[in-house]
Design a protein that fits this description.
Blueprint (H helix, E strand, L loop, with lengths): L3 H8 L5 E3 L3 E3 L2 E2 L2 E2 L14 H4 L1 E2 L3 E2 L6 E4 L5 E4 L8 E4 L6 E3 L11 E4 L5 E4 L14 E5 L4 E5 L10 E4 L5 E4 L14 E4 L4 E4 L11 E5 L5 E6 L6 E5 L4 E6 L7 E6 L2 E5 L16 E5 L8 E3 L10 E4 L5 E4 L16 E5 L6 E6 L8 E5 L5 E5 L13 E6 L14 E2 L1 E3 L3 E5 L6 E8 L2 E3 L2 E2 L4 E4 L1 E4 L2 E5 L10 E9 L8 E6 L3
Parallel strand pairs: 35-44
Antiparallel strand pairs: 1-2, 2-34, 3-4, 5-33, 6-33, 7-8, 7-38, 8-9, 9-10, 11-12, 12-13, 13-14, 15-16, 16-17, 17-18, 19-20, 20-21, 21-22, 23-24, 24-25, 25-26, 27-28, 28-29, 29-30, 31-32, 32-33, 36-42, 37-40, 37-43, 38-39, 41-42, 43-44
Length: about 500
């Protein structure tokens, strides 16, 4: 069978042009030339070097309730509710959208992640117009053929599940409702793409609210840090023994969460199930260090704005961007919509208020890091609030680092890299590079990006290149497609290089 990577190369569809010696040259993105120091889309801003800058809204033909960054730099997005069969591919540089033939089942309220070969794995979905009823379907999106296909179904129907890419290339599906409100699929399932078969983890049954925020830890365990719906105790799952261990028995809330460093989690804001009664949001944020001997949540600096339905997005410099959300758990509460973004620093553990976007991004909004270091936010709405809460648009945020000087240039990166190897990265700016990091291509819905991770990489300086040490273990970076960024001493990142991390060449 031809792999996704092979078909990418045959079709001329890789994000980056192939050079001799199996290297990639940056500069081409979806067929559009993107100079390494190209300015972001312009919009009036008082001080973009301090607060960043938002683009003008980009019209979309749907409400982007779910979104995934593909290995060619484009975005797969699909709608919600009865429009859950409607999907597009968006080129974020040109704004061009391509409509897709519908998937077999309604893919609203699904869990999503990327398979190691770049296909988008979409589990469960919307089984009833009134909600709370799941389906067993597994839909796969092929980014090369731009078509939906199906694979073996799950044992349990799931509505609002979470998908987590495992270090061995399999996919873990957790939680989700089956046939009614609080009728939870307590048994996790694992899908093996090599055999197209599922394994039910009957010994690991656990009742988790929907969309648990799951993370692979450096020791291979899975962490349930929080959920989209409710505050929970914090648990860790050992897959070999199918046992859960309580990490912190005190539930502290977090409406969105990220693993900002290996084993270190940030969560912020308020979780909610979108149903009344509604209550005020919180600005609180907490961090958890799973590399410490006795991990427990501790408060970090609170956000300037209380938020429910916010999205947290990892940035190439290791900071975290918060976008959207509202002052209460009302999913259609337009008067309380938060338009200002905020950036959290892992060094100071404080938030800095950024520029404000135009559209309210409440429930069903999404956000993704793009290859050029900007962040796109989309969606919001779908049967919640007045008609004007339906957001058929996208806005793109250029963080302050894009206004602080010329960007370092990534001249070449290998097409693939394996664990534990030293990877040559060509750059004429090698002497001024301060950090190198991998960021997984994002897959996001309902305030949680189920795929993103930030992995700092050790490196040494050479003449016209960096010698970059790849992670020793797939626990740190499960196999698949990543963006590699280099960041200079002033904090300015390069355009990212998308390449394949795999166990063997």
């Amino acid at each position: 069978m031809t792999t996704t990577r092979e078909r990418l190369e045959e079709s001329g569809g890789p994000l980056l042009s192939v050079l001799a010696g199996g290297m990639l040259a940056l500069g081409m993105l979806g067929g559009v030339v993107l100079p390494s120091d190209a300015p972001p889309v312009a919009q009036a801003s008082p001080a973009p070097a301090q607060v960043g800058q938002w683009s003008t809204p980009l019209p979309l033909p749907l409400v982007a309730v779910h979104a995934a960054l593909l290995a060619n730099g484009h975005i797969l997005a699909w709608d919600g509710q009865t429009w859950g069969y409607t999907s597009i591919v968006l080129d974020p540089l040109t704004g061009v959208t391509t409509p897709l033939a519908p998937p077999v089942s309604n893919v609203f309220c699904t869990g999503l992640c990327a398979l190691p070969d770049g296909r988008i794995f979409v589990a469960g979905g919307h089984g009833d117009v009134n909600g709370h009823v799941g389906v067993t379907n597994l839909n796969l999106f092929d980014p090369i053929g731009q078509r939906w296909t199906t694979a073996a179904p799950m044992a349990y129907p799931r509505w609002y599940p979470t998908v987590t890419a495992l270090p061995d290339g399999r996919m873990l599906v957790t939680a989700g409702e089956m046939n009614g409100d609080r009728d939870v699929a307590v048994v996790p399932e694992i899908y093996d793409p090599r055999t197209n078969q599922w394994t039910s983890l009957e010994g690991a049954a656990l009742d988790l609210p929907y969309y648990p925020h799951m993370f692979v830890l450096p020791d291979g365990r899975l962490l349930a840090a929080s959920t989209t719906e409710d505050a929970i105790e914090t648990f860790a799952l050992s897959l070999p023994t199918q046992t859960w261990t309580v990490i912190d028995p005190i539930p502290v809330d977090g409406g969105s969460a990220v693993q900002y460093l290996p084993g270190k989690i940030l969560k912020a804001g308020t979780s909610a199930d979108s149903d009344p009664p509604y209550f005020p949001s919180a600005p609180t944020a907490y961090v958890l260090d799973m590399t410490s001997p006795a991990p427990a949540w501790r408060p970090t600096g609170s956000m300037a704005f209380a938020r429910t339905y916010l999205n947290l997005t990892l940035l190439p410099d290791g900071t975290v961007l918060a976008t959207g959300g509202g002052a209460s758990t009302d999913p259609g509460g337009l008067p309380g919509a938060v338009h200002a973004a905020e950036i959290w620093s892992p060094t100071t553990e404080t938030w800095t208020t950024m520029a404000s976007m135009q559209a309210p991004r409440l429930y069903h909004s999404t956000a993704l890091l793009l290859q050029d270091g900007r962040v796109i936010t989309m969606g919001g709405g779908r049967f919640f609030g007045p008609p004007e809460s339906e957001q058929f648009s996208a806005e793109i945020f250029s963080p302050p680092y894009l206004f602080k000087g010329l960007r370092p240039i990534l001249a070449s990166v290998p097409l693939t890299a394996t664990y534990g190897t030293v990877m040559p990265v060509g750059t004429p700016d090698a002497a001024r590079i301060a950090s190198v990091a991998l960021l997984k291509l994002g897959t996001v819905t309902h305030a949680f990006n189920q795929e993103q991770r930030y992995v700092p990489l050790a490196f040494t300086h050479g003449v016209g290149r960096l010698n970059v040490q790849m992670p020793l273990s797939p626990n740190l970076a499960p196999p698949g497609y990543y963006m590699l960024f280099i960041v200079d001493t002033t904090g300015v990142p390069s355009v990212g290089a998308i390449f394949h991390v795999q166990a063997t060449p």
